[in-house]
Amino acid sequence: EQHSADDAARKDFVEVKNEADSLMYSSQQSLTEHADKIDGELKESIEKAIENVRGALERQEDIPAIKTAIKELQATQMKIGEQVYKKGASSASSSSSTDSKGPIDAEY
């Protein structure tokens, strides 16, 4: 009973830390996977956001500060999807215009 408040605070910190670790990992994976479709400015901003989250965790800042850093990283990570989608859509439209030879017959 005496330490229940401390335990609850520690539990909250661990949950936020796990969320941050997962997000940093997925952001790094996205950078690696889509490196050819991401411009340098976005790459730098994502790396900076990852470092902000990592720094907040290392300093063991209060949970709201860590959550703010997480939200900033999430917003920046969303831009990866936007750029990948835009580059994918533009390359798909250009390749579909060159491949318009008509229907392909196939047996099923």
Automatic annotation (TrEMBL):
Keywords on record: ATP-binding, Nucleotide-binding
A family per Pfam: HSP70
GO molecular function: ATP binding; ATP-dependent protein folding chaperone
Residue numbers spanned by region Disordered: 85-108
Gene3D superfamilies per UniProt: 1.20.1270.10
InterPro entries reported in the protein's UniProt record: HSP70_C_sf (IPR029048), Hsp_70_fam (IPR013126)
Protein name (record): Uncharacterized protein
